[in-house]
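Help! Submission page says 'invalid entity' but I think these are all valid:
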Amino acid sequence: MTNNTRIIAISNQKGGVGKTTSSVNIAAYLAVTETPTLLIDMDPQANATSGVGIEIGSYKQSIYDVIIGKVKLSDAVQKTDLEFLEIAPSSAQLVGAEIELVSLFSRERMLKEALEDVEGKYKYVIIDSPPSLGLLTINVLTAAHAIVIPIQCEYYALEGLSQLLNTIRMVQKHLNKGLEIEGILITMYDHRLNLSRQVVQELKEYFGDKVYKTYINRNVRLGEAPSHGKPILLYDATSTGAQNYMNLVTELLERNG
Ligand code: ATP
Ligand code: MG
């Protein structure tokens, strides 16, 4: 992959922490700054796919066909309602890939190799990950330059984090030396809760300024947008959630500037 494409994984094996919401909205805000962006949906649940308005099953090829080496990545890419945003959609078949890949040589590198096909075509590639640390997520981390870790501000927020960090270290050691932690993203933040503030405090102690200054607040509109198949900026651009993700992308672009 050339240096001018930045590949960012949005990963955390914990379920429901805001991976997909963050993937869709980071990608969408990058796109409105006229930054050519590819969103890759690597979760068999396909929430990012429907989240940008693509009807599941309305396409012939998905990231599954790409991962198993059947088609080129560019052949699976779909347009979205945003001019600068394209998506490689997922499908439920991807569940099977975890098993099918096991027997393949370079099974951890299938996504990385597939990305060579779109080299230089996009400025950012944002990859949504499934809630597990299986082979699909390993493929994501092997392909990425950096990982954004969304963390929901709740009681068990930090549980499982050390397992994720161990996986990152393992990938750095054996598969992708250059993998960096791009940032720690605080999601579903509620400033009224002591607990939210406490979780943020702990994260800052451990990760320092890797923690994004922008927090994503708990916001009803963010929860509603997926059922309309729209990124928040097309659903309610004036909502707090929209403001949060816009600020986050500004911060992300500054860090990568
Ligand atoms: P999974 O692990 O199942 O893939 P996920 O980590 O991708 O989940 P999301 O799907 O982004 O998490 O979010 C979980 C749920 O919370 C969704 O219903 C989503 O719409 C909602 N949600 C995400 N972020 C927010 C927020 N900031 N405020 C309110 N609701 C949110
Ligand atoms: Mg998800």
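Support: the input was valid. A stray whitespace character was the problem, and the output above is from the cleaned input. The longest strand covers residues 180-187.
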